[in-house]
């Protein structure tokens, strides 16, 4: 269909059409198909168009830094950045990340993350994203996307959609209703579309029984039609399960190109060329795929900002194989280009402002040059083998600054809390003791008993499910502190009445017993702070930075408080998981069930007292919601495809690289297109009805303003409150079978410090519907 959209898409599409119109059939296929796992320098590589001087597209992890390279930064994790509730910091973080990817020669950053949203507090990859609240995640991802793409790199928001746990992620079916899909899980993706995101990565899991990367409902219907997404959909690595079906369902780029990683077969490549030649896949669909890829490329000005790829994902030496899978092309592959700039200062600022002060009694904090400090716990220390000793950070030795998996990068350095605290105490003339082991309780008690303040460090880790650490298959086995953290805290508090507890964790942990311990005078959640961990923490402990962090999730008192259980056992690798809780996750569930949390969503103390006064609600005449009516234009084609199969054969005398995926045919003996089950209407390029929820070009209009403004929809099946900012909606219901509606129940607006601490309230005026 004719694609449309604001924010630079019109010009980008004009350039993309001009480029794609010049391409042959194999060249168009080359833009859509990865060349194979480890086939070239980047994590993901498309084919190239040498005839037009177009280098292959380079895709690289991840959301927290440039993976598999050196001289780059390790950023604050998404969930810790979210705790800052700062649009400015989110955008600056996105820009700095984008600049590092750009200067390594990368075209597409595989991030940011809003899937998982965080349905399950034990979910292994929650820390990569922002929050289980869709509004907070939506604002954070939008700012991140804008920042990243302003730097000249395509952002690929992931994992679309409902990839909410790591166990069985390759086949689990997340089953849910339409209301839950729209009001929770689709919401932040919609915000990324409004922000102009260039790419969306589809996930490994199934959705209501169909794999995400071949779900026409999810890709064509929701993302491309309803949200009016203009960019390209790329598969997660190995998440493509079919060729023709995935193409017609809305997948635009297959990564890394292999049907199964390292098996060096492909669903596309020459097979896609063949499918177009025998008319199983219409030319308009292939053109749509190629144009979406190139439109995203032009939208972020990659034609102006590109530099040569100056690293290899597969070796860290200066020289090595260019084509690593084939063990060919020995040359200079790593130029060791430094891209960090002064980003350490930004990382330090975000980490400090994302630190949440959960408890502070007896003026324990900020510290005021105490006479002596005892720093206790392995989580305060350096890893003796270095911060990058464990591949993809799959371990828990020393201080925890990032989770594990593909979202990680190499630390250029890691400032451990003990190091930063020792430096500060030396400057202040404070006596300093450091106990490095969690298990030497006698030493911990001895140091604590002689200190005016004891600072204990404890953590809880998680990561991606391709590897297991200490029995944690990505998802956490439980929500308790690791490495005997509870026992360590009990030992220290038994002898020191002024104990400060610092938690580094991927999400909530069960520490209500620590909260109520009278000898624990302060608790800080420092999240996953990245490379400036110790410096940012010292800034908060000593009051150089006033705590502004608010917890982006709810802290329960018991593991059952969230009402969600990770599915860890199944008789099949294709289990079903019903999202029967609907929209009631995190604080919505706590409110619905009237469960008292340890700390509610949005909670955070400060060294300053704030007051709230005067809430005024005004009705504003908006332009109104305009549902998509009528039909789309017919699907266009660009350029003329030579239907003679001979033109798509491997060029004469071309020397193929082994294990490298090409777009050419090996034979002109093409099979006839047979009968197969395909998505309904997927081969039809005629005008199609516009979905009523689609709204304005580029996605539904955004109608929200301020963090910590909550809205009550008032209905019996609605959450008590939801974070919205200021949400004003005018709808025209009843114009289709499915549409957005405003219910008749009274709508209340609350302004406050957290999801349970409301200072002001008012009634939202709703005019006649």
From TrEMBL:
InterPro entries found in the cross-reference section: Cellulose_deg_GH3 (IPR050288), GH (IPR017853), Glyco_hydro_3_AS (IPR019800), Glyco_hydro_3_C (IPR002772), Glyco_hydro_3_C_sf (IPR036881), Glyco_hydro_3_N (IPR001764), Glyco_hydro_3_N_sf (IPR036962)
Catalysed conversion reaction: Hydrolysis of terminal, non-reducing beta-D-glucosyl residues with release of beta-D-glucose
Record-level GO BP terms: cellulose catabolic process
Region (Disordered): 673-697
Occurrences of domain Glycoside hydrolase family 3 C-terminal (ranges): 355-587
Pathway the protein takes part in: Glycan metabolism; cellulose degradation
Gene3D superfamilies per UniProt: Glycoside hydrolase family 3 C-terminal domain, Glycoside hydrolase, family 3, N-terminal domain
GO molecular function: beta-glucosidase activity
The keyword Electron transport is annotated on this UniProt entry: no
Pfam families named among the record's database cross-references: Glyco_hydro_3, Glyco_hydro_3_C
Domain Glycoside hydrolase family 3 N-terminal residue range list: 73-293
Keywords: Carbohydrate metabolism, Glycoprotein, Glycosidase, Hydrolase, Polysaccharide degradation, Signal
E.C. code: 3.2.1.21
Assigned protein family: Belongs to the glycosyl hydrolase 3 family.
PANTHER family (alphabetical): BETA-GLUCOSIDASE, BETA-GLUCOSIDASE A-RELATED
Entry protein name: beta-glucosidase
């Amino acid at each position: 269909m004719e694609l449309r959209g604001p924010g630079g898409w019109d010009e980008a599409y004009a350039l993309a059409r001009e480029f794609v119109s010049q391409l042959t059939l194999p060249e168009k296929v080359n833009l859509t198909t990865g060349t194979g796992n480890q086939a070239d320098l980047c994590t993901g590589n498309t084919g190239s168009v040498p005839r037009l001087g177009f280098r292959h597209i380079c895709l690289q992890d991840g959301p927290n830094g440039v993976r598999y390279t050196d001289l780059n930064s390790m950023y604050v994790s998404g969930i810790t950045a979210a705790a800052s509730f700062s649009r400015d910091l989110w955008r600056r973080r996105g820009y700095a990340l984008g600049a590092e990817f750009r200067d390594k020669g990368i075209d597409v950053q595989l991030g940011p993350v809003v899937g998982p949203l965080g349905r399950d507090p034990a979910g292994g990859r929650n820390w990569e994203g922002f929050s289980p609240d869709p509004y907070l995640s939506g604002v954070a991802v939008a700012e991140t996307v804008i920042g990243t793409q302003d730097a000249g790199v395509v952002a690929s928001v992931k994992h679309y959609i409902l990839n909410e746990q790591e166990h069985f992620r390759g086949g689990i079916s997340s089953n849910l209703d339409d209301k839950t899909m729209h009001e929770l899980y689709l919401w932040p993706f919609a915000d990324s579309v409004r922000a102009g995101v260039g790419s969306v990565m589809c996930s490994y899991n199934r959705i209501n029984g169909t794999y995400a990367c071949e779900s026409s409902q999810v890709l064509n219907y929701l993302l491309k039609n309803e949200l009016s997404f203009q960019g390209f959909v790329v598969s997660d690595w190995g998440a493509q399960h079919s060729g023709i079906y995935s193409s017609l369902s809305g997948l635009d780029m297959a990564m890394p190109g292999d049907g199964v990683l390292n098996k060096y077969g492909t669903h596309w490549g020459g097979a896609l060329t063949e499918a177009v030649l025998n008319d199983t896949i219409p030319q308009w669909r292939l053109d749509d795929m190629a144009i979406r890829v190139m439109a995203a490329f032009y939208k972020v000005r990659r034609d102006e900002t590109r530099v040569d790829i100056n690293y290899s994902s597969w070796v860290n030496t200066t020289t090595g194989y260019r084509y690593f899978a084939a063990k060919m092309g020995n040359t200079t592959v790593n130029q060791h280009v430094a891209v960090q700039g002064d980003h350490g200062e930004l990382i330090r600022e975000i980490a400090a402002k994302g630190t949440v002060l959960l408890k502070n009694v007896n003026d324990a904090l900020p510290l005021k040059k105490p006479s002596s400090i005892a720093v206790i716990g392995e989580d305060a220390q350096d890893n003796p083998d270095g911060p990058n000793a464990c591949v993809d950070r799959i371990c828990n030795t020393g201080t925890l600054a990032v989770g594990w998996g593909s979202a990680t990068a190499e630390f250029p350095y890691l400032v451990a809390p003990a190091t930063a605290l020792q430096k500060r105490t030396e400057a202040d003339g404070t006596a300093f003791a450091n106990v490095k082991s969690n298990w030497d309780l006698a030493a911990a008690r001895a140091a604590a008993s002689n200190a005016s303040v004891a600072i204990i460090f404890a953590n809880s880790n998680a990561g991606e499910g391709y590897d297991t650490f200490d029995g944690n298959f990505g998802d956490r086995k439980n929500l308790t502190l690791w490495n005997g953290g509870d026992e360590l805290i009990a030992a220290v508090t038994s002898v020191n009445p002024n104990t400060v507890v610092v938690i580094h964790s991927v999400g909530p942990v069960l520490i209500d017993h620590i909260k109520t311990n009278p000898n624990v005078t302060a608790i800080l959640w420092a999240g996953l702070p990245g490379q400036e961990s110790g410096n940012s923490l010292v800034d908060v402990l000593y009051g150089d930075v006033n705590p502004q962090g608010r917890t982006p999730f709810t802290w329960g008192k018991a593991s059952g408080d969230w009402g969600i259980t990770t599915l860890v056992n199944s008789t099949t690798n294709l289990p079903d998981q019903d999202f029967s809780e609907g929209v009631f996750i995190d604080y919505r569930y706590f409110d619905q069930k009237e469960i008292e949390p340890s700390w509610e969503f949005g909670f955070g103390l400060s060294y300053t007292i704030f007051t709230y006064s005067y809430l005024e609600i005004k009705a504003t005449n908006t332009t109104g919601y305009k549902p998509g009516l009528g039909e789309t234009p017919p699907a266009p084609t660009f350029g003329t495809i030579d239907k003679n199969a001979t033109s798509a054969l491997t060029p004469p005398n071309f020397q193929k690289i082994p294990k490298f995926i090409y777009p050419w045919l090996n034979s002109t003996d093409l099979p006839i297109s047979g009968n197969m089950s395909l998505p309904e209407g997927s081969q039809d390029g005629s005008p199609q009805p516009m979905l009523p929820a689609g709204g304005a070009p580029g996605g539904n209009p955004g109608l929200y303003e301020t963090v910590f403004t909550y809205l009550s929809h008032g209905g019996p099946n609605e959450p008590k409150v939801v974070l919205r900012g200021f949400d004003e909606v005018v709808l025209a219901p009843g114009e289709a079978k499915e549409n957005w509606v405003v219910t008749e129940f009274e709508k209340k607006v609350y302004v406050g410090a957290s999801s349970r601490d409301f200072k002001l309230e008012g009634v939202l005026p709703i005019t006649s519907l």
